Amino acid sequence: MTYPEWSPSSWRSHPAAQQPEWPDERELKEALNALRALPPLVFAGEARSLKTALARAGRGDAFVLQAGDCAEAFGNFSADSIRDKLKIILQMAVVLTYASGLPVIKVGRIAGQFAKPRSTPNEAVDGRELPSFRGHAVNDAAFDEISRRADPGRLVRAYHQSAATLNLIRAFTKGGFADLRQIHVWNQEFVAASSQGRRYEAMAAQIDGAMRFMAACGVNLEADSTLHEVDLFVSHEALLLEYEEALTRRDSLSDEWYCCSAHMLWVGERTRQPDGAHVEFLAGVRNPIACKVGPIATVDELTTLCERLNPDNEPGRLTFISRMGVGAIEEALPPLLAGVKASGHDVVWICDPMHANTFVTGSGLKTRRFGDILGEIKAFFAVNHQEGTVPGGVHLELTDEDVTECLGGGDDILDDEHLRERYRALCDPRLNATQSLDLAFDVGEMLQTG
Ligand code: PEP
Ligand code: CO
Asked: Alpha carbon 316 to chain centroid distance?
């Protein structure tokens, strides 16, 4: 099917929520012209491979691990930090694969996750009002006039940081670091010292043993690239439509449009209006795409989104990311799973147990409880089983760092005071590496028991 009225800029005639107000039109034009002239960050063929992999997850033959920062930062950017982010994703993926026997599709919230939707356009502190922080692609978090000014030059910087990040991801994933024989190296020191880290070491030793056994049986492990390389796909919220438009290119092989800023793009809970600009934009690019689904969504809305975003009912094209909250999921999700299934639309359902479990502590820190996160994933598996649908994966906010942003879990972060020790979130609170590994073991068990 073609979209006769669609073009990379057709979103401009639809209402676009959550767009920054750029104070200088000329600066914006210059930045967008620069972006249009820059090479694509990903290739259409890679996006198509991810779509094929996601179709498998929709059938229950693979499991999606989509994870990374809530908001990437311009400041926190180094080879070590990219390597360590990769370590935790590889660790979690191997835990999930070992437990479930399923291939794990690894999708980072990385190399482009620089823009944030906000609940209010302005923020007031001590009676002073300034524009809200919208992510490093727009402005800075510091509360002063200059930092909060929307600066289009940041769009170009976001592109370059994404390019450098992707470059290193490609090197690490294809150049030996992701080799299964490096399984022990992925266990960072502070994680290895925890009980989760020790459990991981025990599992890694079993995998070593299995590989030695296969080699002894004459299997040529050297020759099998699947043991030495992995695919890590990249994704972000397609929020800043001017940026996404500038990176949308026509694929020379298929003659179709792809948004080449990431392999997979999603539309957020605040921008998924079926007649809105974000849905219009994503409808015409051929990447695999996703849509957040909160507790206020209706079956009608979701089937309309399926018709708009995946009219050909192509498997793997559309993922719904359920983000209901541990208290709401058992009531809110089953009718949506059943309604979409009955409509005959093919979607992949995955669970974001983060965004509807956020709360602010007595002393004003945004946090989440590990128990709520785990509880929402458990309920996600249970209601999918009850409705005869497939729990296709998880979508998490986490970091490789030893932060104290979420309560509970492996580290047993218990209270406000403990949270303050290493609270470094630029936006939402993230699981640290130990909590993330803890969660991977729990999800692995859920996959095992089916
Ligand atoms: C996010 O994923 O960081 C986010 C803002 O999510 P949601 O749109 O589900 O609130
Ligand atoms: Co977030």
From this structure: 16
What pLDDT sits at residue 4? Answer: 59
Q: What CATH code is carried by the domain that includes residue 200?
A: 3.20.20.70
Is 89 a residue whose pLDDT tops 90?
A: yes
Structure-token pair, residue 222: 């050297």
User: Is the CB of 269 within 6 Å of ligand 1?
Assistant: yes
- Ligand number nearest CA of 237 is 1
Beta-ladder partners of 407: 369
Spacing, Cα 88 to ligand 1 middle (Å): 21
Model pLDDT, residue 311: 98
Compute the average pLDDT of residues 181-189. 93
**In a 3-state reduction of DSSP, which class is residue 379?**
helix
Exposed e or buried b per residue across 344-369, where buried means at least 16 C-beta atoms within 10 angstroms of its C-beta? ebbbbbbbbbbbbbbeeeeeebbbbb
Give dist(CA 302, CA 270) in Å, integer. 14
Our answer on whether the CB atom of 339 is closer than 6 Å to any ligand 1 atom is no
Asked if the structure places residue 2 within a domain, the reply is no
* 355 within ligand 1 shell (Cβ under 6 A): yes
- Name residue 442's amino acid: D
Q: Per the domain annotation, does 22 fall within a domain?
A: yes
User: Is 5 within the bounds of a domain?
Assistant: no
Structure tokens at 169: 């991801």
Residue 413 has pLDDT above 60, yes or no: yes
Site to probe by mutation for ligand 1, drawn from 110, 235, 270, 272 as the one with most ligand atoms within 8 Å of Cβ, is 270
Q: What share of the chain in percent tops pLDDT 90? A: 94
- DSSP helix/strand/coil, 442: helix
How many structural domains is the chain composed of?
Answer: 1
Residue 4 domain flag:
no
Please, are residues 100 and 444 in contact by the beta-carbon 8 Å criterion?
yes
Q: Show the domain range for 129.
A: 10-449
Atom of ligand 1 nearest to the CA of 395: 2
Put simply, whether the predicted model's pTM sits higher than 0.70 gets the answer: yes
Mean pLDDT of the chain: 96
